[in-house]
Amino acid sequence: MIVKIASELSLRVSQVEKAIELLEDGNRIPFIARYRKEMTGGLNEEQLHEIERMLRSFKDLEAYKERVLQTITQQGQLTPELEARITQAQGIREVEDLFFAFRGKKPSRAWLAHEQGLGPLAEMILSQNITQGSAEDYALQYVDPESDLLTTDAVLAGARDIVAEKIAEDAEIRDMVRKFMLQKGVLVSRARNYRIQSEFEMYYDFSDPIRRIPAHRVLAISRGERERILKVWIDVPKEEIYKRMEAHLIKNQSSVFLNELKLSIRESYDRLIAPSIQRQIREDLNRNAEEHAIRVFAKNLRSILLQPPVRDKVIMGVGSGTKTGSKLAVVDRNGKYVEGAIIDLSEDWEAAKQQVTEIINRHQVDVIAIGNGTTYDPTEKLIAEIISAFDGKLSYAIVDEAEAGVYSTSEAAQEEFPDLEPGLRGNIFIARRLQDPLSELVKIRPRFIRVGLYQQDVDQGLLEEELTFVMQSCVNQVGVNPNTASPFLLGYVCGISYELAKEIVRHREAKGQFKDREDLKQVKGLSQKEFLQCAGFLRIPESDNPLDNTFIHPESYGHVIQFLERWGNGLEDLNESVKALWVKIRLAGMDVSQLASELGLGEPTLRDILDNLKRPGYDPREEIPSPLLRTEMPQIEELKEGMVLKGIVKNVVDFGAFVDIGLKKNGLVHISQLSNKFVKDPSEIVSVGDLVDVKVIGVDAKRGRIALSMRL
Questions:
Q1: What is the pTM for the complete model shown?
Q2: Fold of domain 636-709
Q3: Helix axis angle, 45-74 to 2-9, nearest 10°
Q4: Which terminal Cβ of the chain has fewer Cβ within 10 Å, N or C?
Q5: Three-state SS for 489?
């Protein structure tokens, strides 16, 4: 197992071995990746996550093998050869093929033929030993006027049913057919009714080789099939499959049963093997497409969560409206809710505009966060007029409000704003999502965050697992202040459960702020093991110890203090101490490996310590471009082909990228328009949050579609 994982991931066996040891000892991935680099040879979170996933898959496979072996043993049919083949099988399909002949069988045509006593005749067909006489001669003795076997044709048909089932149970045949289908098969879809208009029209007369069909098309076709818009099947050159099966099974061309065997082969494939293997291949296609989509979703979510906060801004959130009005909410620079309102647009337009303007002036609103679900022109038009009246002093940003509805009725919203109705809670969410995406998005379940197309078509359990991993990774990458964080944010810190997070908040509210990391040990229920896992990710700027505002783990404090006293000026003034440290190190002609040896630390750990000493309180989001705030709100009707605009990438999918150009509807940069060079994977060119220049190449105002190009 360890060797296989190491080989597939191109890692050393020792790295995988140590990673598995640490994982099975209860250590969390962020902790291992950051604080156990020497032990794993510097494995990062993604590599550790993949090791964990493959380890779980291996254990699942081994458990399935055990169940199969137990079932066959109970039937009294397990041979040493079969046991060895099952034990050594490398994948689930291989085990399924070996188990196929021993699964619980329902009454079938072959079963009925056995009941009629045709087993010996079927064996004659399979053995191919008889070369004298004819098939009808041997079938004649089984003719029985008192049963259904009235003719030799009926007898031979029954015997062929037995042979066909035997062939279908041959693991080598099944494996050969599967490989052939994967190589030569074509996925075909047709409309059930060509007159019906739907989003699947491009698949009404579609085909694509299985070996190269993109994941997003697999998901789209499967959805169309579930909605009974499409008929879907796998098309293969059957004659070639027949020939390959015949070459594998026919050993004696002189057998009097040669024609019966050929007919059995065809029937076995058509009636038994093809439906089963096609079903498996469709399942594998869908699973692989889902796994690919989930990886894309995870990458998008990471970019979304690591978008930089809009700091020190008072923000008004405006969500979905109706034809007669809309709701809005204002949060202050710290995210505190200060006022909400309902705007009535049904009667006095100017009064509504005055009402919103007064709220903006009263709270000195800096930015309006506009939810992209605002679908009615009156609300959009009102905000546009207000923004233009401020002559560039009021900016706005389009915010994805898909999660606002989820948040508005969630446990988090009810705890935070028990007295507010859901609509206002949703607008607060819109404002605070712009203000600090990470802190706000952790309040809802990861799978409800909109991160890509076909999100509802993938396995929701796998999606939740992968997105939760990303959320945990991002929270720990940024770090959390336990004196200000919500329990929802704390619950994603390495080693802290949601229940423990709530206990940390209760402790903080009852006893006051944590003075330092050591103070965290006073929290009820926080074990030494959990403290070890979480301490380095909980940063306390208020602490007298400047190391508490870094990612340096408390277990290394002794080494760091020794290091600073030897090479710097101690902890009193960390900035000056670090400056002195580098001067002294250069004068001494020391390098990092020598320093690590002197301190008894691993070189990777010392490099991390040095990096953290230079940047206490570091937030990796600071290195990412800030969200694009605009002061003019265009309308889709104003767009003209050839216009070049600034945009921000909102979503990356297999066929391109969706870009926010200041409208509620994002424009699409098709994969063919991402670059002047051939692009295989859009994520190689753009990521969510990237600021890009785009050119308008098509506008469909009626359908709200905008085609963009980055080929300027």
A1: 0.85
A2: OB fold (Dihydrolipoamide Acetyltransferase, E2P) (2.40.50)
A3: 140
A4: C
A5: helix
